[in-house]
Design goal:
By secondary structure, the chain is an alpha/beta fold. The chain has twelve helices and 14 strands.
């Protein structure tokens, strides 16, 4: 293995940024060499900036505790020291779009956890097991940005991970209509119970912007690269409607899903398709890839957050309660870990796929 790529974390002090720090502590390919956050934290050590606010169950990795924070806006200074960045900043969307493009134009690839560029037509939004071919659109994005190496790649919303993988495994049976309700953990809002005590014993039947994401993002993931238009074109063969509810759970997004198919699969066919499904990360053995992407649980009371959210170190998807429905063809329940598979872990896996495909390289090896 060549020398590790140098990584910067933008938004390093927030919950997702902290998860990136945790996951990359002993990564075989990537090394965190720089951390950045809001300008008010500039010059503080990472330890000082997260004092009393470290939300992970593990200790802060020793390698980053004394790193001095940069301001996210220090684009040129940061770009000169890293090979690529993970972005998990908490800023208005127009500011996120601008800062991510600034890094890309500074020939520093951006692997983003943010939603700001998910609807930029030449920005790939990828679940590596499902649509790694969408990285092909990067060449057109580089044309637009005028870059040789820099680009932006994003991952989808955390909540769609709990049901889109199952529906993807069933695309051969031609799903046509989907009704999904998601029950989303509070860490999806970047909070824990100490910071959000009013969520204890409570349910909030609204999460801003989530229903549009739940209904539209799977269609983009199932789309294709149009080489004439130089963009991603969404799938049009499935209609999805959703409700998104915040529930008093720390980690884990659960989905209750109803689906109609053009074909008439049996329960046995559907379960076999789930268990057999694998993708690019499994084929090439990416470091963060789950060996089993989707598991099917036969007990009536599974999947459960407490028992199943950490399946495959939080990178696997759990499906259960598959049964025929009186109005739709089938219904099921899905579960995914929202800050691992759904956020930082999905971002790391995406970076691994980009590296394996040759999109991420050490700048020292490039003619820039």
């Amino acid at each position: 293995m060549p020398k590790k790529l140098r990584v910067g974390i933008l938004g390093a002090t927030g919950m997702v940024g902290q998860r990136f720090i945790e996951l990359l502590a002993d990564h075989p390919w990537f090394e965190v060499v720089l951390v950045a956050a809001s300008a008010r934290n500039k010059g503080k050590t990472y330890q000082e900036a997260v004092d009393g606010r470290w939300k992970m169950d593990t200790e802060i990795p020793a390698a980053v505790t004394q790193m001095e924070l940069y301001a996210v806006e220090d684009v040129d200074e940061i770009a000169s020291q890293v090979d690529f960045v993970f972005c998990a900043v908490n800023m208005p969307k127009d500011e996120i779009k601008a800062i991510e493009e600034a890094y890309a134009k500074a020939e520093t690839p951006v692997v983003s956890n943010n939603s700001a560029h998910r609807w930029t037509p030449d920005v790939p939004m990828v679940v590596p097991e499902i649509n790694p071919d969408h990285y092909d659109v990067i060449k057109y994005q580089r044309e637009r940005l005028g870059t040789k190496h820099g680009f932006i790649a994003v991952k989808p919303n955390c909540s769609i991970q709990s049901y889109t993988p199952a529906l993807t495994a069933w695309r051969q049976f031609e799903p046509t209509e989907v009704v999904v309700s998601t029950y989303q953990a509070i860490s999806g809002a970047g909070k824990n119970f100490a910071e959000w005590p009013e969520m204890v014993g409570n349910i909030i039947p609204y999460i801003g912007g989530e229903e549009a994401k739940s209904e539209k993002e799977p269609l983009q993931v199932w789309g294709h690269v149009d080489d004439d238009q130089k963009v991603i074109v969404n799938a049009t063969d499935v209609k999805i409607t959703s409700q998104c509810i915040r529930v008093p759970v720390l980690y884990g997004h659960t989905a209750s899903v109803f689906v109609n198919f053009k074909q008439h699969p049996t329960k046995e066919q559907l379960i076999q398709a789930l268990e057999d499904y694998a993708g690019y990360p499994q084929a090439v053995g990416l470091p963060s890839a789950p060996k089993q992407f989707i598991q099917y649980l036969t007990d009536d009371d599974r999947p459960q957050v407490q028992q199943d959210v950490n399946f495959e170190h939080g990178m696997g998807i759990s499906i259960g309660r598959l049964r025929e429905d009186s109005i739709f063809d089938w219904k099921f329940v899905g579960l995914s870990h929202n800050t691992l598979r759904g956020a930082a872990g999905g971002g790391v896996l995406s970076a691994e796929a980009l590296y394996e495909k040759g999109y991420l390289k050490a700048k020292a090896d490039l003619d820039l």
